[in-house]
Fold these 2 entries.
Entry 1:
Amino acid sequence: MANRMSIVLFSGTVDKLFAVSTLTAGAVAMGMDVDIFLTFWGLNAFRKDQVRTNVRFSSDFAEFAEPALQAMKAKNVSHWLDTLNQAREIGNVRVQACSMTMELFGWHLEDLDPIVEDVTGVATFVQIAQEGEVTLFI
Amino acid sequence: MAVQHIDKEIDARGSFCPGPLLELIRGVKSIEVGQTVQVLSSDPGSNRDIPAWIQKAQHEFLGSFPENGYVRFVVRKAH
């Protein structure tokens, strides 16, 4: 049975989204299932109206934002959502939304990118993570 | 050097980790057991990841061949 990497994605900056998509791809490449739990700014980043246009960057590293985004464009680096979708073609990647954040901001599943399968509660996610070998908070 | 018959060639040069590895995995998925895939990669991370994946996934590693600025990896789908 495949082992599992569980990721709580709290952050909504593209540098961290990029890291999450790369880790997810690496995990599925090595035969792990990946469960991603979107909350707060991570959840916000998957809203249909933002998902492709978001260019927020970690503010401590603001001076790297422009060069990093330019380099990614020049070097044809895939968008983080495309990498996630590719990972999903290769292995089991499940992306779920935190119900609390959804309620707080009044969002609905249809507002989010279709990669988000479901809305779930924290206890469900904790149980998923408990069954896995790796849990990350990003 | 023996010339290998290649069933599928993937040119992932210029693509970044995890690109080449993901393309290789998709390539292997798309061929029949016993067929071979060749992937070209210029990314140093992928050049480590690719042999590691081949071993982990238990396919037949037919070799890595350094070329000018990139490496060719040849894999036979074992199962």
Entry 2:
Amino acid sequence: MYTAEIYLNTFAAAIAFAAAILMYVSNKRFLSKEFKKTVNWIMITSAIFFAAQVSKILESLLSLSMETAHILRAVFAILVGLGLIKTAYEINKFSKVFGFAETGKKFAEAFMDTGKRKVNKNEKK
Amino acid sequence: MKRNELIGVIVAIVLPLLLYGIFSLQGTYFTWPSPPLHFFIEIFSAIIGVVVFSFAILGFRTTGSRRILLLGSAFLLMGLIDTIHALAFQDMPALIVPTGSAYSIYYWILSKVFGAILLFLSVSLPNAVINEKSRNKLTFYVTASVVIFSLFIGWIVANYMEILPVMFIAGKGLTPLKIYLEYFVMFLLAVTGLLYLRIFLKTGNRVLYWFIVGFIFFIMSELSFTLYRDVWDTYIWLGHLFKVVSYGLFLWGLIGLRKSS
């Protein structure tokens, strides 16, 4: 691994770590009950991402074999992916609160072959 | 169609053609390698693609419209494969997939061919309504299939490039196969746009209008990808410019919906 790559991985790990800590503190101190589960999942995903970045740094520092490194990367990629899916699922629960569900409904209706064009008075003339 | 709507459609057709005309003049051809800008453009459109998909899924859950599900999956598929395309582009560091013009062109054309087919199917198939019980399951199956298919495309191009037909020859330009595939995509997008235009003329829905104008810019963007001779030349940048405009219009349509909600 190049030195620049180690720096980039360290930087990404630091951001993920900061995000996880921020989510933990927010959850403990500021957030109401309904948001806690969602933020918990963001925190968990950030923590997995942090672990993935640390393992990438260790790959070069411990000179792991290519096979081991690839297995580690694949495992972390799957875990991060699952974390993201679960987080998206939790965020999706708020779609009604923020009115996204209503927008989605209108979006779908726009493409359906239903409804009639609204004609204003000027157009009628 | 109202006068200003008609003007919008005409501008979307004439303006890109005018720009192609200007840049075909002698002395206007240039090459400018900028991997960061290309990456930014692709990620910008991929994010909008995912946003369109998210709203499509929300709409599908309430209305059960198969049309919106197909439309949403087309945007997700293009967004995911375009992200791989951005990572595989020439002069990018080989972080996940191998990089180079051969790889990035394959990701690009496969994203557009499959995306255009899904978009065409969304409007050409009759709009069936899926029953409420199956909607959540179907959402999961469709999302998982699109993600797995995108990863499969990523894997197959990265590992079997030597057996795939050539799309681009450095110093010469595109092969006929690539050009005809782009024409095929343009044809499908044009038919899709026309069929949606028919619905728009009936319903007059504004979001549909912005998507139709977006499709026109999308077709114009594809046109430029039949013309380039170098992966960093004038036509590549024009094509990406029209792509940004096209995705910007899709987003604009969604923003209009949010305002009216």
